[in-house]
Structure formats: structure tokens, C-alpha cells
Amino acid sequence: MKHHSIARKLFIITSLIIIGLLSLVLVFESLFFESFYRHVKQHEQETAITKLTGQLEVMQADEQAIAYTIGSAMNEYDASIALLNEDYRIKQLDIYVIHLVSGEQTIKVIINEEGLRYGDLPVELLPGDKLVVDGIFMDQHNAVLHPVHFNPETVEPEIGLVRVQGTITSLLLPEQRSYNPMYQDMLISNVLADWKPWELTDIQSAQSMTMQWRDAWSGVQYIATLAKMSDIDSYVIMLSSLQPVDEAISILRKYVLVLFPFIVLIVIILAVVYSRYIARPLVKINAFAEKLAQLQFSATPPIQSKDEYGQLSQHLVTLSHNLEKALEEVTERNEQLQVEISKKIHLEELRKELVANIAHELKTPLAVLKGYAEGLQDGIASHKQEAYLAHIVRETDVMNELIMDLLELSKYEVNAITLKPAHFHIIRLVQDEVDALAIQLTDKNLHVKIDTTALSNLNVIGDRKRIKQVVVNVLSNAVRHAKAGSTLRITLTTLPLNKVEVRVYNEGDAIPVEHLQLIWEKFYRVEQARDRRSGGTGLGLTIARHILQLHESQFGAKNTEHGVEFYFTLKEGSANHDNEK
Q1: Residue 98 lies in a domain
Q2: Name one GO molecular function term (predicted).
Q3: Which DSSP category does 174 fall into?
Q4: pTM exceeds 0.90, yes or no
């Protein structure tokens, strides 16, 4: 099972949450910031024009105060403002003015969008500063001047212009903003021309109305708000540019694209530090708990802090002490009980199995022995006595072999066998057992062919003693039922999943299909001809089955075209090991 540390999980979760939130903010900024800004801008402009109309209504017909209030509001709200009459025509007000004292005369310098560029206006003027203006007087008393040049560099004014020099007493000038305010002031007439007549009639019942308008020449969008003054039969219109937000959003997106990788890097670094800081105590406690699970008790807490980690650590130590003490008591009592129970169960089961099997399988050999013994007792001919004695010895060997197999089988059936797995040379083991059967092979004129060409590794893992018993039983069975003069084929191959397969083939009569699984049962014989007098006890394959099951082997028997083939698998061992004992 793949290990996933809590530090890694905290790092991934923290990074994903922060980066996800950051990405979400960026997406919302990209999708909704512009509309949000426009909504806020409209609300602020409607609030500002409501406040302005309230101020203007108090001033009644004081045009100078109205003009000053509108001019101050234009600078304050970064907007162009105009006062309209009942026919929605712009009232001419001297909004931007400079009052000069030249000698004994006060001159009013009126600044408007006609004939003057914004860049021509002086900057940072204050009351008390000296100012030189070339312009044209607009009245008979030479008190109102339309400026053309401020602080001219020429010695004499241009033809048709007069030069006025004086001290500023008061002034109101348009402030430099993100657009040309004087150009924007000229756009109010265009806005009123584009406003639908039926839309203007709605202002009679509403406090204010707002629309977005685009300048056809510059392509810049504006927001225009029209409000009606209740006490005066006039209207106020306010026009603000939306160009700053468009530029700001464009720059912000570029800025975010540049900044985002650095933010992600910082988030990852902080997440690594944070996750390790949080997970370090848990890792120590987990290691302590793992030892505790393996019954490795310790009296030293892994965490000495005074927080919840420290408390949990101390509780685990207490649990360790209590569990160790309880386990010692339980283990001691359980060992005593298990020993007693196991002995009784083992002895009882072994007794039952031995009694049943011996009673059944020794009946025939004992009958044979009795018959030969009675013949000797009756005084048979002397030339037959040696043959009778040989039969008695042979039957005694059969009974002895049967008893030994029964004892061995009883151990497997009560799980009294413990395997001792090791790496050993499988081909050498097979060859040794073939050599041990040389007499039986010679008696039946059998030949043995061992094929290992498909085996890449010669070692397997298993209990060598038990596997030897399997090989002996399978080979003995093959020799016993092989056709005289035929060839036994032993094939060793490598299978997927690190398995080695051993196949033993003998030429002879086939086993009926319905008997292929039953041959592994104890005392089972396919036919009468295959009885103990043919050389077997009927327990060899049963013992082999138990051994192979303990090795988690895949085994079986199948009929071929001319004989029978037995097979079983073992785990492939390391080529660097070869334990033959």
C-alpha cells in the first residue's frame, strides 16, 4: 500500500486551497470587476449629483456662487458638470475664472473650452501670485478678459491682443486628470443630443437618471447622470469618464499574469513550511503508535509540548504501560491455556484418525499375515516355508509403510506441521530423487528425460524436506503407473508472477475425468488394480496435497494423448541463495 504522509496531504490541500482562492479572485476580477466598478461609479455619481442639486437649490439666482460650486464639484468628483434650463439647454456660467488686481482695477479672466487648450493653462497658481495674460476684453469696461496666452514669452502682445499684468486675488481652475477636462466639458452638448426625448421626459417623475455614452471620436465611454432641481426650474448634468477603469483593468491583468507565478511560489514555500510544522509532531506520535502496535512499549513520550500533541503523547505512554502490563498477564495465562487445549485436541484428533485409518487399512495385511502364519503352523512343505516367510516380511513392510504414512498425514490434518522455507536448487533435488529410483526404473525398463531449457532461475523457495517428499510421491506414482519401456518426462518452466512449474509425465492408462480430483483424497484408488500390492499405500498424493497447499501452490493432474501428467508450482527463489539443508 502506498504511503501518503500527512505533511504531503497538508501541503497539497493548503496549496490547492490558496491557489484556488487566488485563481477564483482573479477570475472574478477578470469577469466582474469592470461591471462592479461601473455600478459603484454610477451610484457615487448619483449620490454626488443629489448632493450638488441640494447645494445649488439654496443659492437660488446667485450665478457666481453657483458657478463656483459647480467648478469645485467638477474638481472634487473628477467630472464635467453643467446647469441646464427647462429646455435642456446649457446655461453659460463662468466656472473657471481668475481674478486679477491690476493697478486700481479688478479684472476677471474667464477660462473656457473655446480657443484655449488645457496645456496652455498655468499650473500651481495661488492667490497672491503674479500673472501676465494676453487676451481680448469681452466688455466695454475692460473688466472681463478672454485669455489667449498665460505668461507670454514675447516682449509685446500679438496684434489684436492686450496684455494684462496683476496679482491673483482668487481663482478656480480645472485640475489635471486622466483626460482633458476642457475637452470633456465640450462633450455635454453631444450627450444631450444623443439622449432620447422620451428618456428626458422621465426625469420629471424620477429624482435622477443615468446612462452610459460613448464618444464617437475618441471611443472613450462615459457615464452621464441628469437630475432635476425641485425648487428651481433647472437641471444638472454630470459626465464622468470610464477610461481610467479600462486602463486600470488592462494593466491589472498584465500585472497579475506577472505576479501570479511568484505568488504561487510563495504559497508553495509557505505551504511546505506550514505542513511540516503541523505534521512533525504527528509523525513522531505516529512512529510511537506504530511501535506500540508492534508491542514495543516505551516510557518516553515522543512530544514534550504542553499543547494537545503533548497530552496525546502522554496518554499514549500511559496506554503503553497499561497495555504492556495487561498483555503480560494475558499472554502468560493464554500460553498455559493454549498448551493444555492444543495438547488435548491434538491427541484426541490424532487418536481418532489413527484408530480409524489403521483399523481399516491394516485389515487386509493382517489377514494375509494370518494366512501365511497358519500355513507355517500347519506344517507346510519345507520348500514353501521360505516363500511364506518372504511374504510375511513383505506384508510387514507394507504395514510399516502404511503406519508411517498415517502418522505423517495425521500431522498435516491437525496443522501440526511448520514449514521451514529456504532457497534451494530444484533441478538438483529432482535429479537426486530420480537417481534414488534407479532400481524401480530398471525393473520396468523406464527412461527419464529432464527438460530445463525454459527455466531461467534454478532456485525456488520452500521447505526442502517437504518438497522432496512431494517429488518422491509424484515420481513414485508416475513410475508405478508408467507403461514398461516408456520414457518419463520431467519439465521445469518459469511462469509469470515469479512462479516455477514442475511437470511429471508418464505414458500409460488415462485417469477417468471424474476421478482426477478424487485421486488426492486419502485411500482413494481409481480401480482395484491400483492397490497396495502395486506398491502404494494410497496416502502419497494426499500427503503431497497437504504439503503443496501449505506452500500456496497450484497443483493438479490431467490426461494427455498417451498418458497422465502431474504438475505443481513453487515460488521462484533468488539466484544468490542455495540452501540445500
Answers
A1: yes
A2: kinase activity
A3: P
A4: no
